[in-house]
Amino acid sequence: MARPRNRDYDELRRALIDAAGRVLSTEGPAALSTRRVAQLAGVSTTAVYSLFGDKGGLVREMFLAGFARLADAFAKIPATEDPVVDLRALGRAYRENALTNPHLYELMFGRPVPEFRPDEAASAEIRPTFDALVAAVDRCIDEGAFAPADPYEVAVGLNGLVHGMCSLELRGALGDRTEADRLWDRALETMLKGLSA
After folding, report:
1. pLDDT of residue 1
2. Where do the H-state alpha helices sit in 76-114?
3. Which residues are CB-contacts of 2 (< 8 A; sequence separation ≥ 6)?
4. Considering all CA atoms of the chain, what is the largest pairwise distance in Å, rounded to the nearest integer?
5. SS3 content of the chain, % helix, strand, coil (to 5)
6. pTM for the complete prediction?
7. CA 6 to CA 97: how far, in whole Å?
8. pLDDT tens string 79-130
9. Which partner from 25, 41, 135, 168 sits 20 to 30 angstroms from 160, CA to CA?
């Protein structure tokens, strides 16, 4: 297969990443191969090698794509005059991104492919998503909505909460969407109330 034309590049790249994510999440890491991914995407394995180099490169790009989609979700949140409203919106965007991309979520935060570990460059590339959370917490503290605290430590706690809730929801442990909404609202409000000044 020839290298994809520029207008086809992003579409094919996304299709391959999503196909690989579906294989990983539904069939497990043993089933993840360039041949299987190419088959699901309806292309030759040459396309996978052309775009990602090898299976390791594909897994790395899946990892980065998950965080790129999260960063895009964060970027779409309009800023308001209320820092707590904006922080709550980050939590909701995190959740919606996980529900929209469940096939990438486990790779973003777990070790479903044991041989994959993000290198320094990948770790640096994904850091802005966490930095956005720290900045939102820092604003809540600066504007007096939260009691004085280390923004990084508060962000770690909030990240742990939303990650845990997402993991439970993706495994079906929070009930249907209505019940999950209620439990999410309760968890976030309890945490935010505890942080208030």
Report:
1. 46
2. 83-100, 102-109
3. none
4. 60
5. 75, 0, 25
6. 0.90
7. 27
8. 999 999 999 999 999 999 999 999 999 999 999 999 999 999 999 999 999 9
9. 25
Contacts of 25 (CB under 8 A, 6+ apart): 102, 103, 106, 112
Taken as a whole, the chain contains a residue count of: 197
Residues linked to residue 196 through DSSP beta bridges, in sequence order: 146
By CB atoms closer than 10 A (0-12, 13-18, 19+), residue 161 is middle
Question: Please, are residues 79 and 135 in contact by the beta-carbon 8 Å criterion?
Answer: no
CA 103 to CA 21: how far, in whole Å? 5
Q: Both tokens of residue 51?
A: 């775009």
3-class DSSP state for residue 184?
helix
* Residue 5: predicted pLDDT: 53
Residue 139: how many CB atoms within 10 A of its CB? 17
Query: What are the backbone angles phi and psi of residue 146, rounded to the nearest 5°?
Result: -110, 150
* pLDDT of the residue at 45: 93
Q: Are 63 and 116 in contact (CB under 8 A)?
A: yes
